[in-house]
Amino acid sequence: MQSEFGNEEKERYSRQKSFFGIGEKGQKKLAAARVLILGCGGLGSAAASLLARAGIGYLKLVDRDFLDLSNLQRQILYEEHDVKEGLPKVIAAERRLREINSTIRIEPIITDVNRFNIEKLIADVDLVIDAVDNFETRFLLNEACVKQKRPWIYGAAVESYGLTMNIIPGKTACLRCIMDNIPQPGSTNTCETVGVLSPIVTIIASIQSAEAIKILTGNTKDINQNLLSIDLWQNSYQAIDVTKSKIQKNCPVCNNHEFDFLNGKRGSAYTAICGRNAVQILPFKELILDLPELTLKLSSLGSVKANEYLIRFEIEKYELSIFPDGRMIVKGTTDTGIARSLYSKYLGN
User: Fold this and answer.
1) Which CATH number does the domain 33-249 belong to among 3.40.50.620, 2.60.40.2470, 3.40.1180.10, 3.40.50.720?
2) Which residues have a catalytic role annotated?
3) Is 330:342 a contact under the CB 8 Å cutoff?
4) How many CA atoms lie within 13 A of 281 on its CB side?
5) Among 140, 195, 247, 326, which one is most buried in terms of CB atoms within 10 A?
6) pLDDT in tens, 240-258
């Protein structure tokens, strides 16, 4: 980072630097900041846009998925041509963010977040924005951030309802303090089952982004200490005090440093994808697929479309999206048994 802003940067951030909570000093802190955004869907794309515009010096974007037409209703970075190109979300996001702010660094990473890579992903950043679509990944993120003492900002939105909470290890409650176990499959609403309003997504992402700016500029006295709950349809706004949670005293993560998800004692190799009739299957070990070679093999079996990022293979009533890291997203079912069977049939065990 340059010690002083050039004329263009001064003009770009002039209104933000005029704000009492930031100023010249705060803007320099933002320029030096490194932020990881986990998930580039509704929350992640909105947060990425806001933080890029705010001048965060380095944004690391991580997402496992590619764009679908249904994403455009609420994922504000993307356009129809991105869907037609079949782009991974992080690649389309990077393109758009570079048009918004060419002065910052952006690193797109197409991968699933798992116990093998989560600690490496968060190791070189100052803060993490949670924009994932499942609780298993959040529990894993919570453990990694507590272990490495990385602040992260929880966020979730479905239907007209959203939640967000700052988690600063050693200072606030963590996710396990307020939620002892992952909800059982089928027990919580998803974007696919009940839908989601775009405004609640952008509101939660805006709050996450504002809290990130507070944390990164050192405005600790102004950081939200509550779990915020908002329902736009019911006109409900609640700030739930979690600072004196009795659960926190016995938290296995905060107090005992029991990292069951990081250590592989808990977790699965299958994930249903929110808002999609689809299941993601993970390989049992780290690998790199030869996509051109695999494209040739599959082309004799069904309809195949491929680019440098993934293969889309249609067989019977299913669409299989295959990534270089060995992941497969099976569209057309939520049955993990069927998804695993298709994985074994076309990629092996």
Assistant:
1) 3.40.50.720
2) 191
3) yes
4) 27
5) 140
6) 998 766 556 789 998 889 9
